[in-house]
Structure formats: C-alpha cells, structure tokens
Description:
This protein is α+β, with helices and mostly antiparallel strands. Helix content is about 25%, strand content about 25%.
Amino acid sequence: xxxxxxxxxxxxxxxxxxxxxxxxxxxxxxxxxSEEVLEQETSLGDLVADxxxxxxxxxAALVNATQFKPGTIxxxxxxxxxVSALLVKPARPWSVSNxxxxxxxxxxxxxxxxxPAQSAHFLQVSxxxxxxxxxxxxxxxxxxxxxxxxxxxxxxxxxVAMPEDxxxxxxxxxxxxxxxEANISPNPAxxxxxxxxxxxxxxxxxxxxxxxxxVPRKP
Length: 219
C-alpha cells in the first residue's frame, strides 16, 4: 500500500480511499417499482422503508409517497444508484422519532384518508401490518394496526424511522403532534442513499413479490 501512495504522490496512480466501503449490488427476484406509490403499497416503497428501519434499528418506518419518482427497476442486479435514481432527493436526511401508538394510528388514518384515490399523504411502511376499510369514513378506516406482529398500544412509544421532512410534519403531517422536531431522536442518522447502500450490502438477494403490509379489508 505504501508504494501505491508513493506513486500517487507523483501522479502515476490515483490514491486509494483507505478504509472506504464498497457498495455491493444486490439481486432482486422481481421488478422493484414505485408506480402507483400515491395510492398503494409498492415494492420499491417497501424496500426504501426497510432500508431506513434497518439503519435506525427502529420498530417501524414510514416513507411519504412524495419522496419517489415513478419508475421500475427490472428483476436482476440492483445497485444503490438504481434505487436512488427513483427518489426525488436521495441525499435527504432521515431520522428516528419517538411516536406514540395513538399518533401512529393517526398517521395511518391520514395516509389512507383518500384511498383508493391518489394522495400525497400516502405512506409506504416497514415493520407494520395495516388493514383498512374504504367503506368506513376517513379517520376511522384502519381496522387493524400491528408493529412487529403485535397490536399497536395507544400509550406505547415506538421508534419510527422517517425521512426528516416527514418527521418534522411534511406532506401534511404537521397536524399530528408526534410529527415534530421535538420528537426526533438526537442520535445521528444519515441520508437515504447511505441507508440504501448499507441495506443492499447486507441483503444480497431481494424478494419483494408479496405486497402484504397495507391491505384492504376483505368483504
């Protein structure tokens, strides 16, 4: 390594980035899409939500639909650049907030308030299972909400990873008390691209064929 540095110092080779991580591409068994992200769960939405939940060691994750551009990554090789290209601002910071069960339920109600119509409020999720009924009035559509397979408790506090603008009340979530800067954990986080890179490094094979996190209630 010393001889490489010496050659670099005289301009013969580029100096290596000592200790720099190398992003490894993953392989997806199915296409990853953000099409219809404004109205339903999508495979790319699931992936990005999983990325920040893992990076923040959080109980759950929420990603507002307005973070995404419409598009599809074909099955096969997937790089952090491929995923980041379908984000409006891939360098946007994400954070972890402390959110009560009551606030979490309110967020999902807002997310589904216009379903099945398109809505900028729609949330892609990780760590959650949501059952909803569009026959019920807006604000009372969520019939079952679980974190880690367990029913959400109103008074419990959950660690929820989110893009920082959403955590501060963006996309119309400022009306829900927990979505404010005061509830953001002081622990450092990172950017969406950094979380995506770490997740693809840790998961060389991706399978997002099953969209079963946000499901309509069966008649």
